[in-house]
């Protein structure tokens, strides 16, 4: 909130004209979330334009209507719905972005692929590593992947901008990750925490027979190829249980947990229990230890 107040101070000292001069927010997802929140509060609502400069910004934080800041131990506990009047998506900004932040954004793209777009998953299998290496500057593949990811995100967000419907496919990867990300601070980037969550729920889906073992292997291997983590020491029963309880409160008393159904589609479940979670986390820990040792062929 201190950053939000700073932005409000600058809007005051600039003497912004409320209706005619939108604030232009140029930066990563943190910046557009903070400036968006300041704008939604400033004189009850001031227009703003977003110019995301990170991959997460281009495919996710710059696409929806949500603003927010963390509060207490919780991710985005304070926030608003305040759509930008315009958003400029320009991948040229990515040329200066660190490799780890490209991987971070690839995790959110992988989310769209896993839960609703099998063709995007195939593109990531073919070109994902290249995109990571080139900072998304590979001609053809870069535009195709960005286009599909943004389009898929918009398809899901646009009809439900104010989230009246709580079964949201784009919540995939965001059931356990908010708690894990906050408790692991500053170790895991947002997309990395999302990836760990997706790895866990892929294993849950595999054990339920929703995802085949060959498909699960492909998913986990793609995560590794994109240099994303598939496991974290916080994936233990106490943290996972508390994370799920917080998510249930956030989703109005039900789990409404998106799980992949094959690659490129999803289902919602309400009946995940602690034992099933602990089993899946244990399996994943063993799998990632195997991979680190150089074997890992047992999905
Ligand atoms: N509002 C939403 O709907 C939404 C959706 C997804 C994520 N988010 C939020 O976005 C945040 C993550 O965003 P992020 O990954 O952009 O992180 P970030 O904003 O922290 O940016 C990452 C780093 O890259 C730097 N940077 C930005 N643009 C750069 C460029 N072009 N070249 C070099 N460096 C650059 C930033 O200064 C920062 O150090 C999370 O807090 C997440 O909650 C919000």
TrEMBL record:
Residues 105-239 form the 3-dehydroquinate synthase C-terminal domain. Keywords: Lyase, Metal-binding, NAD, Nucleotide-binding. Its cofactor is NAD(+). It catalyses: D-sedoheptulose 7-phosphate = 2-epi-5-epi-valiolone + phosphate. InterPro entries: Dehydroquinate_synthase, DHQS/DOIS_N, DHQS_C, EEVS-like. Residues 4-102 form the 3-dehydroquinate synthase N-terminal domain. It comes from the Bacteria. Its EC number is 4.2.3.152. This is 2-epi-5-epi-valiolone synthase. It comes from Kitasatospora putterlickiae. The lineage of its organism: Bacteria, Bacillati, Actinomycetota, Actinomycetes, Kitasatosporales.
